[in-house]
Structure formats: structure tokens, C-alpha cells
Amino acid sequence: MRRWVRIAGTVMLALGVLTGAWVFVVWQWKDPFTSLYTLWQQHKLEDQYDDLKQAWGRGESATELASVRANLAAEAARYRRATHRGQAIGRIRVPKLGLNMTVVDGTDDGSLRKGPGRDLRTYMPGQAELVYIAGHRTTYLAPFAHIEKLRRGDSIVLDVPYATFQYVVTGWTIVPADDVARLRSHGREVVTLQACHPRFFATQRYLVYGKPVTVQLADGRTYRYRRRGVTLESTRASLRALPRTAAASPSW
Fold first, then answer.
1. Count of other CB atoms within 10 angstroms of residue 117
2. CA–CA dist 194, 134 (Å, integer)
3. Which of these, 103, 191, 179, 170, lies nearest to 143 by C-alpha position?
4. For residue 240, which phi and psi values (nearest 5 degrees)?
5. CA angle at residue 211 from 206 to 217, to 5 degrees?
6. Strand, helix or coil for residue 56
7. Which of 4, 30, 158, 161 is deepest in the core (most CB within 10 A)?
8. What is the DSSP letter of 58?
9. What does 213-250 look like in DSSP terms, one character per residue?
10. Residue closest to 218 by CA, chosen among 45, 54, 48
């Protein structure tokens, strides 16, 4: 009997050590098994998005600011209608997190296993409404694993076929998991990133908010957001070349 007790104790101790080691690995470097699945899905999504971007037709070119804003909103609305759950719709880059992934349409389990997903109840960039993107924090490549590291002024870039949008972080909050009021749009362009909180649990949501700073149209023209809308800044500029300090500088 004592021998079996010692064997059981040794097995339980070994399982405890292995469990602790696994938690540490996931905490530091993400779950390797689900990450492999997401890497495979991301590869497929990248090809899908490249094809979509190449096939997406440009709307009419406009020069008047009012027309530029209207055309941008129309393109965004058309794109929202044309896309569907589980499809690649764009790319997200968050330099502070080292994040550069394809975004999928939808926040259901199947979609989020592929990568960060846009909540279908919200809008596309450029519609002057809420753009809500959720992502895992410990599994499936954990795109928002360290979302809590984001600070005011940090850059968030969303690339869609009709334009590339640069946002800067304005704040963050923690809310209950069932707080669906955060999905309500208030008639202004805002990006919200969402992850479960705390890590390894889903009792709360960690939300990061960003305001738009710059939009680069598909033809290369670049505009800067101001309080009253989008104003012409420069042409043929590259969003990737804009420094963080410059992105955070406009008055609103």
C-alpha cells in the first residue's frame, strides 16, 4: 500500500510540475499547438486577402474634401456588405505589440481561431463609426496577449483594400464580459481592441480605444483627421513612414 501511495504521490508531483511548466510556457510564448493551427490559417488568409485586395475595384476619384469623405464612407459601406463571416478582410499592425496579422470578419470561435476578428455588429474603417476587433490572449497565436502594454499615442494601423487607416491609442478600460453596451457606435470613427481579462480567464474584457489620425487612399493620397472631419495633408505619402510622434501631433 505504501508503495502505491509513493507512486501516486510521485505521479501527482510530476503532473503538477508539468502543469506549472506548461502555464509558464503559454504565459511567455503562447500555446504552441493552437498557434500552429492559426499560423496555417493566417497563411491561407494572407493569400485570400491579397486576391481580394487585387480584385477590389476603386470608387470614383474625387478632389473636393466633402466628396472624398463621402466616397470613403461609401466604399467602406460597400465593403462591409460584400464581406462575410470567416473571410479575410484586412491587416492589423500594432508596432508596440509586434503584431502584424490578417484580420478576419467575425468574432465567433471559428473566426477567432484564424486571427483577430471584426465584430459583425460594428463597422468598417472609414464609415465614421465603431470598428471593434477582438483577439485571443493566450491561444491561437494570442494576438492581444500583451494588450495591457498599449499606452496613449501608440499606433494601430488597419489596412483594407480601399485605404489604410492609422489610429492612436487614447485610453483603455476593463469591463464585465457581458457588457454589450461597448458595441454601441456613437457616430464617430473609433477603433476598439478587445481581449479577455485577466489572462487564462474570460470573466472580464480588456478594451483599448483609438482615434483616427491619418488615412491613405488606394491611389496614394493621404489625408489627416481633424475635429470636423478629414482634411487634406499631403499626397503620395506613406503611412508606414509616419513616425509615432507625428501621428500623435494633430489637434482635434
1. 26
2. 5
3. 103
4. -65, -25
5. 125
6. coil
7. 158
8. P
9. EEEEETTS-EEEEETTEEEEEESS--GGG--HHHHT--
10. 54
Residue 125, preceding bond cis, omega within 30 degrees?
no
- The residues pairing with 163 across neighbouring beta strands, listed in sequence order, are 160, 217
How confident is the model over 40-79, as pLDDT tens digits? 999 999 999 999 999 997 766 666 788 888 999 999 999 9
Q: How far is CA 55 from the centre of its chain?
A: 23
Backbone φ/ψ region at 153: left (φ over 0), alpha (ψ -120 to 50), beta: left
Q: Give Cα separations from 76 to 15, 70, 191, 227 (angstroms).
A: 52, 10, 14, 20
CB-based contacts of 246, cutoff 8 Å, min separation 6? none
Residue type, 146: H
- Model pLDDT for residues 109-152, shown as the tens digit of each residue: 999 999 999 999 999 999 999 999 999 998 999 999 999 999 99
The three cell numbers locating residue 191: 477603433
Report the predicted TM-score, pTM, of the whole model to 2 decimal places.
0.80
All cell numbers assigned to 9: 504521490
**Contact by Cβ (8 Å): 148, 190:** no
Give every CB contact of residue 126 below 8 A, 6+ residues apart in sequence: 72, 73, 75, 76, 160, 162, 163, 165, 189, 215
